[in-house]
Amino acid sequence: MPVLEARALTVSIPTEDGVVHAVQNVSFAIEAGELFGVAGESGSGKSVMMQAILGLLPNADISGQVLFEGQDLLQLPARALRQMRGARIGMIFQDPLSSLHPYYTIGSQITEAIQVHEKVSATAARARAVDMLAKVGIANASERFDSFPHQFSGGMRQRVMIAMALILNPALIIADEPTTALDVTVQAQIVALLDQMRREFGTTVVMITHDLGLLSSVADRIMVMYAGNRMEYGPAEPIFRAPAHPYTAGLLRSSPAHYAAGAEVIAIPGKPPSLLHKPAGCVFAPRCANAMPVCTTQHPPVRQFSDGVHTQCWLEATPAAPATRLAAEQGRGASDGAPVVLDISDIELSFTTGGVFGRTGKFQVLKGINLSVRRGETLGLVGESGCGKSTLARVIAGLIAPSSGTVVLDGIEMSSLDPAGWRETRKHVQLVFQDPFGSLNPRRRVGAIIGDPFRIHGVAKGAERKRRVQELMELVGLNPEHYNRFPSEFSGGQRQRIGIARALALNPGLIIFDEPVSALDVSIQAQILNLMRDLQQRLGLTYLFISHDLAVVRQVCDRIAVMDKGQIVELAAAEDIYTRPQHDYTRTLLAASVVPPRPEDHADRQLVETIQWVAA
Amino acid sequence: MIRFLAGRLAFAALILFALSTFVFVLFFVAPGDPARLVAGDKATETQLIQIRSNLGLDRPIHEQYLSFLGRAAQGDLGYSYRNQQPVLTLIANRLPATVSLVIGGVILWLSVGIPVGIMSARHPGGWRDRLGQGFILVGLSFPTFVLGMVSLYVFYFLPRQAGFTLFPAGGFKPFWPNPAIWAWHMALPWATVALTTAAVYARLTRGQMLEVMSEDYIRTARAKGVPEHKVVYKHGLRATLTPLVTQLGADIAFLLGGAIVIEQVYGLQGVGALAIQAVNNQDRPVIIGVVLLGGFFIVISNIVVDIIYSLLDPRVR
Q1: CB of A116 less than 8 A from some CB of B
Q2: A527: which residues sit within 8 A by CB, 6+ positions away?
Q3: Looking at the predicted structure, is the pLDDT value of residue A616 above 60?
Q4: Which domain holds residue B51?
Q5: What proportion of chain B, given as a percentage, has pLDDT over 90?
């Protein structure tokens, strides 16, 4: 008997804009002891679905059946459902810092879970919590019991969350993006811990993630969701070997990790649909490489294949790979003779900590950094959070003054500049930021945002400025007619294009990209990376590309500098970093990045059954 | 912690010094002759000269200022021009009324404002929220003196016409020997000061609570199976306390410096009433004393709020 079984689960959420069809007619069964993966981009409905069945979304309209231990969770009274939460079903969330109460000790937050459900003494609860903390790998558990969440690192906090979820030995644990907010090297540890715990306690684990690569290594069975629909469902192994649904295949192929020299990554075109309207046909049809006429007019049926894989698709066989577009080789990779755009030497940066009345100390952020970038080159800067890579970007851009050392940009020494000269350097260096939502002023029109550099530097006015802004919009793949729209009317990927257009305006010698795709959906990332490379080839741009993700950097960079604790530990050609890493830290980073399997084009599977779609 | 406190206290002393200098200079350059106010309209020029000399007003300003500072450093704020009583004694006599008003008012406005705010925030958009918002709107838009007049009319004047005394018209009775009489006299002032301020606290609590209840750790608490009332009152309220403490510190300090309108309406002989009398009489030592008292309460409350903050929020410890 499955631990959790959903039948025709539909979740709708009424909002001011209309009803959001977050989950549409999704069925699945999770067997005892397995690790079940739910994959999908943001807005696919994966998190909403799990929170809705646990009664954590009071506003949602839910229909269908969700059977857990013989009871329909959707029929349970609120009180019974509450007693189920924590005791029989545990949850782990994405960001362990914001998910733990900042004002209570981690120990008291764990014992609270015990005492809500069981009558036990405080000492007994404490003993059990300490025991569990030790099991999830918290050293000195009995002392750390009284620590507050902010006194732990990200990975340790997630261990605390896991301990809290496991403390009452629930039958099922739902882990919602448990590693997304963590550093690459920590991610692998947390996944390993979850895997070890489910074997030790016999707990069934549902892992919700946007990262198919993560699931490929641990999941027994998976479900791929898109815009509230179950696109593909079945055993993990055959799906990862050769996905039966074009969406799954597209996701796997668009992973930047599948880098082949000279070839562009195959991006899924377009963007995820609005959930306010239910299309007549398949939700994925507008972006699908294999779409047929029927796909846009009729809702696809559920097809069941001989290897247990289910799809919601009109295709009767595994989709073939779309043709790879070859990227033009010229322009990529600067020759040694190209002029040096950026040259920084012996950059040191330290902050004094403590104040007038406290003890003073020195905190060194950057230690002896030397770098140079030649025209037309892309230099990657890779490291985990806190290694100083973004700070270095700010120093190069002149936003922070280094404690010592020199930054020479296009032959100009930055530290010797007066304010007017500093403003002039904006023409030479521009930044594109990680968060396309936070870095655009929501109350200004896109035309004004992109036109800012022209206005500030007095380059172009009036109709001339508008014409040049629209040229830029065209260049980065935005519709120039959207000149007067506000940032909120654009999707994440489009906003990042706005940021790139603004950076391009003054034709700067160097563009610094600070994690430009980290905040974007998987299917959008490849589009932006391809755009960046395309622009570089056409305009001969020079990039400094900052990322925590080696796989992303590999696709776009000529050389890569690996940073750790404020130092560059290794600097070499991109291929050498991957094939012949010299430094231990580089090897650790490489080992930690999970690469999703490259899908095969053909699979040995036959269509067994076709179930016609019945609208819920 | 001790270093921190020492630093803050030194800073507080600096603030008070600057404040006293400012007020001293202000009253020196302001028009008006304190001697004439003391002596009355019919005083002769000789009498005025005599009085000026007695008060030290005929000396150069820097001498007056230095002797003021020298005495203030020893805890002597001088004597009232009006009745020759020590300023400190005058203030000490007025403090019980003001402190009584503040203590009762704080308890009352917190116990009304916070629950109304929580009720509003727990049902955003619902009828309870609209009720709470209505209370906030009324409380915020009622001027204190109007509210005072209305409550005097309803709770004192009308019952008196009907032949009985529901509440007294005003005046202050000391807490000891009869606390009941004290509370009876303070009830209307408390209600008046509390209603307006309760609205402020309800609005603050509502806004803060709405924000906190959408935090991830609230979802975690629900996912653990914590009962809803505990989610709200333990996890939610705990996180809304910090901004409330900041507001409370400022409000208490402000009121302790003199609740002028309320004291006037209810005839309470508090610090606020003293301030008004002193200003009307150009009684410079008393004015400086009252201003310094207000400043003292504000700097002290800032220090206290900082200490409470560090107790409430483990992240700033």
Answers
A1: yes
A2: A267, A268, A269, A493
A3: no
A4: 2-73
A5: 39
pTM more than 0.80: yes
Q: Which stretches within B123-236 are classed as H helix?
A: 127-141, 144-152, 158-162, 179-213, 216-223, 228-230
The size of chain A, in residues, is: 616
Same domain (yes/no): B65, B166: no
Interface test with A, best of B213, B217, B235, B316 (most A CBs within 10 A): B217
Question: Rounded CA gap, B110 and A121, in Å?
Answer: 34
Q: Which of A211, A213, A168, A174 is nearest to A194 (CA)?
A: A174
Highest-scoring range by mean pLDDT, A228-232, A386-390, A435-439: A228-232
Instruction: Indicate yes or no: CB of A116 within 8 angstroms of CB of B224.
Output: yes
Whether B219 and A56 lie within 8 Å, measured CB to CB: yes
Q: Does A431 touch chain B (CB under 8 A)?
A: no
Average pLDDT over residues B161-165: 88
What is the percent of chain A where pLDDT is above 70?
95
DSSP for B150-181? HHHIIIIIHHHHHTS-SS-SS----SSS-HHH
Tens of pLDDT along A500-538? Answer: 999 999 889 899 999 888 888 877 888 888 899 889 988
Does residue B53 sit in the same domain as residue B149? no
Tell if the CB–CB gap between A101 and B220 is shorter than 8 Å. Answer: yes
Q: Do B223 and A56 touch (CB under 8 A)?
A: yes
At B287, the amino acid letter reads I
The fold adopted by the segment(s) A4-226 is: Rossmann fold (3.40.50)
Select from B6, B222, B313 the Cβ nearest to the Cβ of A56. B222
